[in-house]
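quick one before i forget lol
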Amino acid sequence: MYVLTKDQVIIFLTTVYGGLIIGFIYDLYRVFRFFIRPKRVATIIEDLLFWILVSIISVGILFYSNWGQLRGYVFIGFLLGVIIYTLLLSRFVMKVLLKITRYLIKGITYITGYVTLPLKYMSIIRKKIQNKVDYRLKRHKKRIKRVLSLPHRIIYDIKKHAKYILFKKH
């Protein structure tokens, strides 16, 4: 299939744009890893998901721009887009993304603090009530033990004296 030079330039510029998108997604991934700090297995899974997403985007751009045909200038366009993004935009975007993420985390923490505040107060009140109940029960502990053991004592006494009561001669 014959492709005009004008179309090739448009395809090339589209793949450069795709490279810029891939660079931005990589910066998003770097910010995510900066705050999450995953362990080894999680890193492997996240890397796999990142490359799957990048592959889907690349294939989508290829099908959108030139019906999925692989040409040398397509690879050069993606590579050039990533290089341009890394050299010109990455530092600025990383700073902005880090600030935005920090503000989001602070906001979520602030909101979570107000949402959990009633639970904290309820916990404090419960502990105070528990301490009062424990203090009052401590004073009456022997009495309570005696009352609670009463059924056991009664059954024991009945068993102990049953043979005398049942087999008593008149």
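fyi The chain has a mean pLDDT of 86.
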